[in-house]
Design goal:
The chain has 93 residues and is an all-alpha fold. The protein has one domain. The chain contains three helices and no strands. It is globular and about 40 Å long.
């Protein structure tokens, strides 16, 4: 695997870990929404594009909590589908 892909995968793993930290925090769902989607748009999307990957999820467009959790569930599924390509999730170590 090219080194640039390895770095992108490591950065993606870090961003996914950061999203999990936000979700586990005591912040309001409005704040979590803002933080998660900011990190998603600024970091996750460009990394997926750099890896040549497409990513889609269903956005229920209802409450902040449901919108955030829809994205998080899809990102968790992405992490599982990438399997051994990503470094271990910090929440499992």
């Amino acid at each position: 695997m090219p080194e640039t892909h390895t770095r992108s995968l490591q950065s993606l793993s870090t961003a996914l870990d950061e999203i999990e930290v936000i979700i586990a925090s005591t912040a309001t769902w409005d704040r979590k929404f803002s933080l998660v989607f900011q990190l998603y748009r600024a970091t996750v999307v460009p990394l997926l594009e750099a890896l040549g990957m497409t990513f889609e999820y269903f956005d229920p467009d209802t409450t902040c909590e449901e919108d955030v959790m829809a994205l998080v569930r899809a990102l968790r599924e992405l992490r599982v589908s990438l399997g051994n390509l990503l470094p271990p999730d910090a929440s499992t170590t």
